[in-house]
Specification:
This protein is an alpha/beta fold. About 40% of the residues lie in helices and about 15% in strands. It is built from nine helices and twelve strands.
């Protein structure tokens, strides 16, 4: 299989079998994801809700405050929805939040949600780092999240889901079981680097609140139309297993304008007789069991 700037160069891939199904024999795998994002000290988002960027180098406190809402307020509203709906999801968490909001992260982990490492900050993008700096970032992020949550993350998604050519290998060497830094397939697959392996869990931006509602200005409720259109098509035309990753951010749909849509999405997913809802780590462990390959 050929990749652009192949992040799995020199590795071998093992795909899910043609008759693959999610746990309980379900065909539709739905993985709700919530991102809790932060920027390093002295850094700030490159865009915000106002739309017009400030002059380069000017601290954008408006955009920074907009993002901080996720860890200060939005996450608690999200946790209430998830508890009310009795589901567990994957939470993408920047390492900087482990120092700023350790009690909040402990509450997330104690509720049974998967902690997915999301780099130290959204400004620390692996594609910009050399190997030494990237390995240091992985270790710093991992150790900080483990200290705050009491759980060592086994999944990683880079900011922008943008890795370097070496990210997958470094993550495997650091003991990670899966990464989400690719959009090249529908289902997860295993990648082996010599004696180590890691699962690639492809994602997508088709149901993500930030580009949908912030960058493109669509109403939050249109996310429900996207879900319904996806469901109609896969039930009519797709024969094999499929997956969907509805993704929200604590600072976007964690607000009152979007949280109701998030809960309605969950309700519609829970009503599917052929759907399975789980954390991404659960999906990967099921894939490994199906393939008969352990992590390592």
């Amino acid at each position: 299989m050929t990749h652009l700037l192949d992040i799995h160069a020199g590795a071998t891939e093992t795909l899910a079998p043609a008759d693959f199904r999610w746990p309980e024999g379900k065909r539709l795998g739905i993985f709700f994801r919530v991102a809790l994002e932060a920027w390093s000290d002295g850094a700030w988002p490159s865009f915000g809700p106002m739309g017009n960027p400030l002059k380069p180098g000017t601290p954008d406190l408006n955009a920074l405050g907009w993002v901080e809402y996720g860890a200060r307020r939005g996450i608690y509203r999200v946790l209430e929805v998830l508890e009310r709906q009795d589901i567990r999801c994957s939470m993408l968490v920047c390492g900087a939040l482990a120092e700023r909001y350790p009690d909040m992260l402990r509450r997330v982990a104690d509720a049974g949600h998967e902690i997915v490492a999301h780099s130290w900050g959204m400004d620390v993008i692996p594609a910009y780092l050399d190997e030494e700096a990237e390995r240091a970032n992985i270790r710093r992020t991992t150790e900080a999240l483990e200290r705050a949550c009491g759980v060592r993350p086994i999944g990683w998604i880079s900011p922008r889901a943008t890795p370097s050519p070496r990210t997958a290998r470094l993550l495997a060497e650091e003991g990670y079981e899966w990464h989400g830094d690719t959009m090249n397939d529908d289902l997860p697959y295993l990648v082996s680097f010599g004696g180590r392996n890691i699962a690639a869990f492809p994602g997508g931006m088709e149901m993500n609140d930030t580009p949908h509602a912030i960058r493109y200005g669509n109403a939050p409720r249109q996310m429900l139309e996207l879900f319904d259109d996806w469901l109609e098509y896969v039930r009519r035309h797709e024969q094999g297993a499929v997956r969907l990753n509805p993704s929200i951010h604590g600072h976007v749909f964690g607000r009152l304008s979007g949280i109701g849509v998030f809960e309605t999405l969950i309700e519609r997913a829970r009503a599917l007789d052929d759907g399975w809802i789980g954390r991404q780590c659960d999906g990967i462990r099921h894939l490994r069991a199906t393939l008969g390959q352990a992590a390592g």
